[in-house]
Amino acid sequence: MSKEDIYAQTGKIAVTQNVHGTLTFLLKYSPFNQMETSHLAWMVEHCQLRFFAKGESIIRPQDGPVQHFHVVKQGLVRGERMLSGQTAPDTTFEISAGECFPLAALIGERATRTEHLAGDDTFCLTLPRAGFVTLFSMSAVFRDFAMRGVSSLLDQVNQQAQTQAAENLGAQYSLQTRLGDLAVRAPVVCSSALPIREAVRSMHEASVGSIVIVDAGKRPTGIFTLRDLRGVVADGVVQMDEPIGNVMTPAPFHLPPSASAFDAALAMTSRHIAHICVVEQRQLTGVVSERDLFSLQRVDLVHLARTIRHAPRLGTLAALRTKIRHLVENMLAHGASSTQITHIITLLNDHTVCRVIELAIEEHGEPDVPFTWLCFGSEGRREQTLHTDQDNGLLFETDHPDQTEALRKHLLPLAALINKGLADCGFALCTGNIMASNPTLCLSRTEWAQRFEQFLHSATPANLLASSIFFDFRVVWGDSVGAEDMFAEVLRKTASNSLFQRHLAQNALRHRPPIGRFRDFVVSRSGAAKDTLDLKVQGLTPFVDGARLLALAHGIAECNTIERLRQLRVAGVIQPLDADAYEEAYHFIQLIRMQQHQIQDKEGRPFSNRIDPDKLNNLDRLILRESFRQAKRLQAGLAWRYQL
Amino acid sequence: MIPLAWLSGLNPAPLTPEQTERRQALPAVHSLDDTALNAARLVVVDVETTGLNVRRDNILSIGAVVIEGGAVDLGSQFERMLYRPNHKVTETVLIHGIAPGAVKQGMPAPDALLDFMEFAGECVFMAFHAPFDRRMLTRGLRQDLGHTLRHRFIDIADLAPMLCPEAKVGRGGLDEWQDYFNLSNSERHNAAADALVTAEIALILLSKARAQKIVTLKELNDRLVHWRRLRQSRSGRF
To answer: Which residues form the signal peptide (chain A) (predicted)?
Structure first.
């Protein structure tokens, strides 16, 4: 580069240097980064720049219809609303650089309901109402954003998560896709009288893995798959000219076209089937195969579930764990929500647990008394991630109390064997010794009932801590009737024990979401965890604890946090809008956590729930903060309800 | 090098009739009167020059933004590059970064200055180290337009320490205050960008003035005069 060129370079002039500077700033944020540059430039040229000193009011309800659209350029804006029966106003939201306000009031041409205050020395770009209206009609992107508010931000985060994961795989479609849109090919069908040879020829010609046997009214009566064919050939008993009706699997499993790809994946995993009939008004409209669902994936769900269930040795099971990791990545890429993924992980983990138990019994010998394997905590809630440890117990039946000790002695070695087997498969041993091999957790049904009784009546800190684990209760293996009867009784007693609920409420307020009143995130100040916060303990636990308490208080037996929130919403305990917000927030924190686990796994680092919020992109950071704020609101609701 | 080039400043080309007409129509001056601060038209200006010598160096570019009603209007900003026939490349190019090529594309000085004065209108100027900008503009207007600059100036470099006595800002230059208030500058030493960041500082200072019950231009100026006197007497003692 010559001297002249350097001068030309440094001397590059932009007549609209400041407009350009402001544009550059806005382009870091949504929706501005998606708007046409000409629209954005128009907006900037019609904006004013204003300064608000910390504590100064920016818009107030009493000011009448809102006159300006604001974008925070620097600083922080707080929304304060006076709730009835309160003396001090409540901070309902915080708005930081790149975010805008107030949308609803501007669109509704009304006053804002919330006073907006400068939480810090703040610069805002302000666009007069007339300019806002012009921009609104000019830019579709801006209009979309303004109409959809924060929910559009959430969509983008989900999209972002998908593309990120999809980059690793090259796969691109959503698990939310309707089955009707997925099963577009005409299904290969035949009547039950057709010889097996002919049926197989049809399958071969259409190169599909299944044929559906239908009656005259196109109603499916059976299904025959390549796997069934393998069985037929291996047996060698059946002749190929026999009718297909003799060898088909009758009454095939089916779903409506409105069901999602995820529903199908879930059914395939739990039922070990690779083909699902799509049926509308009892007529067959299509078939979805496992390959349709995961055409590009490296691991297949059904095969994985089946392999786990039939693994001949512990070593095989342990090796299969890495496949579960691939699967999670796949599901992220296919747009599964965090709940769907935790659900699948739990399902596969359940298969693993069952298989470990069966293998342990094979090794140890059939015990003298049947037993039920219980799980607690995240496994109980069906919320397991890759990073999971054991929380389990064992329940057995006995009619004679004096036999209890003997039976326990008999079962404990088996329980220990199972715990060890699970550890070999990657389920870390529980540091708190909440495991079936612990004599205090290998109990008869009567003893379990007494144990829960203890939780209810003596509110020691240890008991309360234990409650948060044991009240997320589920049967994984063995007869479930006795255990569920026992727990139903516990639930009944909890619902009427308001003192215990109050203690649980206190417990639920222990972990505060990591946001300050005025500042961004509250992170650790020193040590190895410096500058990080804990997504699980500080972010998810408030939701989990809150949902558990409210569910127990209202006799809801469900243990999954999202399900609990939904049922609480139906029961009218939580307002619909709040329930939705809590659910979205919970999903999001879980999603961020799982993405982090995937990365840690790929880099061979140990799993950790700690995250440095500064390392997140703007959008994620924004929504994470909003999600924590929802956790804070949930806790505030609990504090009010139980007068803490 | 053209001999006697420095004399060219003494004998500017005569103005066209149109330019003369425009000069005569230039708006009046706003005095530092009882106008409320949030009602006054304040024009924050920054000039980039060929050097720091107020007697010999020339204006290369002018940037300005307006504070009106307590807000900066991003749609009404001023930026002009001035054409200097005998402009030599000196070390200052490394500061303002205005290349000789850009100067050649600039506007004739009389037109640029007329544009600027019309844009500024009946206003009070604000600038960081205002005496420098004032003297450069005064000489430029006299040489190129035969016009006498009577506008009043408020110096942000004095206003800032007066209103923020608690601030420790080292040399107290624009860079230091910019950092102190956590402001970002899209292109330092670009006249328009510097004017904007100076205006942002001004917005903060006006808010502080309001908090200190300074309401009018006159009150602000009186406080400044008093503060300068105090500072002089203090420095005189040591």
So the answer is: none
Whole domain around residue B75: which residue ranges?
38-237
- A468 and A390 within one domain: yes
Tens digit of each residue's pLDDT (9 = 90 or more) over B154-191: 999 999 999 998 888 867 889 899 989 988 877 778 88
CATH of the domain at A563: 1.20.120
- Count of structural domains within chain B: 1
- Give this complex's ipTM: 0.85
C-beta separation of A597 from A607 below 8 A: yes
Domain that holds residue A591: 507-641
Among residues A99, A129, A148, the one where a domain terminates is A148
Q: How many angstroms separate the CA atoms of A156 and A149, rounded? A: 12
Pair A540, A421 in one domain: no
The confidence score (pLDDT) of residue B101 equals 65
Over residues A65-103, the pLDDT tens digits come to: 889 999 999 999 988 876 655 666 777 778 888 888 888
- For A123, which of B65, B100, B200 is closest by C-beta distance? B200
The shortest CB-CB distance from B74 to any of A13, A45, A52 is to A45
Which tokens sit at A511? Answer: 């972990």
Distance CA B217, CA B39 (A): 10
A354: in domain: yes
CA dist A401 and A222 (Å) reads: 50
For residues A44-64, give the mean pLDDT: 91
Q: What is the pLDDT of residues B89-108, one digit of tens each?
A: 666 666 666 666 666 677 88
Q: How many CB pairs under 8 A join A and B?
A: 101
Pairwise CA distance, residues A134 & B155, whole Å: 38
| B contact set with A (CB within 8 A) | 61, 63, 65, 70-75, 77, 79, 81, 89, 93-94, 97-102, 181-187, 190, 192-193, 195-196, 199-200, 203-204, 206-208, 211
Nearest residue on chain B to A49, alpha-carbon basis: B72
Cβ(A67)–Cβ(A129) under 8 Å?
Answer: yes
Instruction: Compare CB distances from B74 to A15, A18, A24 and report the shortest one's residue.
Output: A18
- Rounded Cα distance, B144 and B138, in Å: 10
